[in-house]
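Below is just one:
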Amino acid sequence: MSGRARPRVIGTAELATLRRLVDDGASVTEAARTLKIGRSTAYAALAPLTSNYPTRIPYFYPAAPP
């Protein structure tokens, strides 16, 4: 075993609560403790909401020259 835990998936209700707590002025760390989720999980869940970039940017490799 590599020692790394599987990333936690949070549901829509938890995400809504996390968003509300942060919007109401709680830090992400405080909100994560309240919901009993990891801080990195909370940041990862909020990242698509705060970023100006899509969560996955497709990259197409150029075709090899003939």
